[in-house]
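Protein in question filed below.

…
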Amino acid sequence: MVSEEFVFRGDLESDSLPEILATIHRHSVPGVLKCTRDDVTKSVYFATGDIIFATSTDREESLGESLLREGLITDDQLRLSSDELKRTPGRRHGTVLVQMGFLEPHELGSAVRKQVQSIVWSLFAWISGSVTFRVGTFRDDEVYKIKIPTAKAILEGCRFLADPKDVTARLGGRGAILRPVKRPAHLEGLRLEDEEKQLLKLTDGSRTLYELCEAGPLNPGINARILYAMLAIELIGRELTSKAVRIQVRDR
């Protein structure tokens, strides 16, 4: 069943994907986010604000192609299972592969998670394309639902952001002062990686973006991207005033 109570429409050139995802997570809403660029559409499905599945019309991101690249199935097995899928439309490719004995159930679960993560991470590198979010319950027929905490997806995905100048601008500029804030209730269970913990500890309200990027545990470009992720999910805040400094956020 699909509910159409609310539909957001935007463009990835002006609307920030991390901030859209953070809003979905903050309000714990179910729905589907669709991003389209040229002839490719990628869809991310949510339940209570967290990611449960993702699909892509790009053949290279299909489950079969993903399994083939991982070496979990052969070319012949992909061909045979694809033929079987065509004969019985409506079935899931993963289910067919397991039933044909080409894949173990536990291998399928792991492969689906990797495929979903790959699709989600790839969206962070898009600098253009249309985006919609439709509230409702979707993918009820999906056997291998997974759960990826959206806040974790933002922290990881922001590392793939393609435009360093846009990251700097969204953080408030080179002299922006970033400060700690009380952790929101919806982030109480969030577990940070060691380098994220180090960067968060440095964000004490006394350092500029430039200083944080230079002092952080990773290279300045990645530090800036992680800081933006933390700002988007409201793990840190930004002061209204800033210092005039010179900074160049380098690519990874």
